[in-house]
Design goal:
- The chain has 142 residues and is mainly β.
- It has a domain of 96 residues: Sandwich (Immunoglobulin-like).
- The protein is built from two helices and twelve strands.
- Strands 1, 2, 5 and 12 form a four-stranded mixed beta sheet that branches. A four-stranded antiparallel beta sheet has the order 4-3-8-11, with no helix packed on it.
- A hairpin with a 2-residue loop joins strand 1 and strand 2.
- The longest helix is centred in the middle third of the chain and has 9 residues.
- The protein is elongated.
């Protein structure tokens, strides 16, 4: 059991030896984007990509596994930010559930252009050098 625990993450984990710092800022129409899910998909499918959630000022720091940073290489980048609303109040939803009635599905609205949602449609590509890059700038456009 100790072997399993010792091999599960942490800064000294061998999987992290090649990680390099990667951070930046994301903008849409010149405005920082907060609470967006940013995923860097490594061109080498054998390598884990990095991901982050942007902060209120649009800044983000990529993480891979449990380590900060990502692997050097070229990435396709996807970005998602959705607004989820519920057509009924919490109280109404609980009433419907108690009565065994159907609960309306939540409504999801994409707040960013949909082309950024998928690897097959995004036009965002970045290369992270072996020394890392803490000044990545993602600019989204319609």
């Amino acid at each position: 059991m100790l072997f399993v625990i010792a091999g599960c993450g942490g800064a000294k984990d061998a999987r992290h030896k090649d990680l390099t710092p990667a951070a930046g800022t994301i903008f849409y129409k010149g405005t920082p984007v907060d609470d967006a899910t940013i995923v860097f998909h490594h061109e080498d499918a054998a390598k884990q990509g990095g991901s982050a959630i942007s902060q209120a000022d649009g800044t983000f720091v990529l993480r891979t596994f449990t380590g900060e940073g990502t692997y050097p290489g070229t990435y396709k980048v996807t970005v998602i930010k959705d607004k989820v609303t519920y057509p009924v109040s919490d109280e109404e939803m609980m009433r419907l559930e108690r009565e065994g009635q159907d609960v309306p599905s939540p409504i999801t609205q994409s707040l960013l252009p949909k082309k950024y949602r998928l690897k097959t449609t995004t036009d965002l590509t970045f290369t992270i050098p072996p020394t890392g890059d803490k000044e990545l700038k993602i600019e989204l456009a319609d």
